[in-house]
């Protein structure tokens, strides 16, 4: 049964912590990115972990030269359990983050093909190569789209690594279309469909149950 990762892209610290409190029994991990960290500071990661004791992944899609990637990883992984990086910048940039993460026993998750329509323009043509690179580098997981289940399947087959997959809910992806592709080490990311709903707790429960079936 794949796990549920909440994408917590709200812009207010108190709202973020209120949602975490509500959904913590149903989510296995929480993904925070620029929206929340730029508005609340990186220490929000510590606050979330204190509140729910769940894995917290920083989605910074790091895409710089190795020396800068290393610095970003050092600061981020002081608090977070993992960090998301882009692969298109090349192996050396990803390895720089892996070197930091290995010392701290943290995760590096690499983007292959993204879930939005524009990803077919430049990312899709290189996504299979990115998946091969992810396999070679033995990153901890890859990001691949729920909005294109056939691509999710192909990329997962190539990389042979755990997948975290966004696109379910607000972007139109459906659990029933991807559930058979995924296994116990994979995560389904759901953001707006939970945190923008009238009852985030009920929605989180609903998604958790869909993944359990
Ligand atoms: P939502 O369920 O609200 O669409 O959120 C999806 C989350 O996953 C957002 O944080 C988004 O930035 C992230 N994401 C994505 O949607 N597609 C990708 O290809 C990669 C992502 O990290």
From TrEMBL:
InterPro entries attached to this UniProt entry: Aldolase_TIM, OMPdecase, OMPdecase_arc, OMPdecase_AS, OMPdeCOase_dom, RibuloseP-bd_barrel
GO molecular function, one term: orotidine-5'-phosphate decarboxylase activity
Active site: 59 (for ompdecase activity), 61 (proton donor), 61 (for ompdecase activity), 64 (for ompdecase activity)
Keywords: Decarboxylase, Lyase, Pyrimidine biosynthesis
Catalysed transformations (reactions): orotidine 5'-phosphate + H(+) = UMP + CO2
Keyword Secreted: no
EC number: 4.1.1.23
Pathway(s) the chain acts in: Pyrimidine metabolism; UMP biosynthesis via de novo pathway; UMP from orotate: step 2/2
GO annotation, cellular component aspect: cytosol
SUBUNIT field: Homodimer.
Identification of the protein by name: Orotidine 5'-phosphate decarboxylase
Organism: Methanocaldococcus bathoardescens
Gene (name only): pyrF
């Amino acid at each position: 049964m794949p796990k549920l990762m909440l994408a917590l892209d709200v812009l207010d610290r108190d709202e973020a912590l209120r949602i975490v409190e509500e959904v913590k029994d149903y989510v296995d991990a929480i993904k925070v990115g620029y929206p929340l960290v730029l508005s609340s500071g990186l220490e929000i990661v510590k606050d979330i972990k204190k509140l729910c004791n769940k894995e917290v992944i920083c989605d910074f899609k790091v895409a710089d030269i190795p020396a800068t990637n290393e610095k970003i990883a050092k600061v981020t992984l002081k608090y977070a359990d993992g960090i998301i990086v882009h692969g298109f910048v090349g192996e050396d940039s990803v390895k720089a983050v892996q070197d930091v993460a290995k010392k701290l026993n943290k995760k590096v998750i690499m983007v292959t093909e993204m879930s939005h329509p524009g990803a077919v323009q430049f990312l899709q043509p290189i996504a299979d190569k990115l998946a091969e690179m992810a396999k070679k580098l033995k990153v901890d997981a890859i990001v691949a789209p729920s909005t294109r289940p056939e691509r999710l399947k192909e990329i997962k087959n190539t990389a042979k690594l755990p997948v975290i997959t966004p696109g379910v809910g607000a972007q139109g992806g459906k659990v029933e279309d991807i559930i058979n592709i995924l296994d116990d080490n994979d995560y389904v990311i759901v953001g707006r469909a939970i945190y923008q709903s009238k009852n985030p707790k009920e929605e989180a429960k609903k998604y958790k149950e869909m993944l359990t079936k």
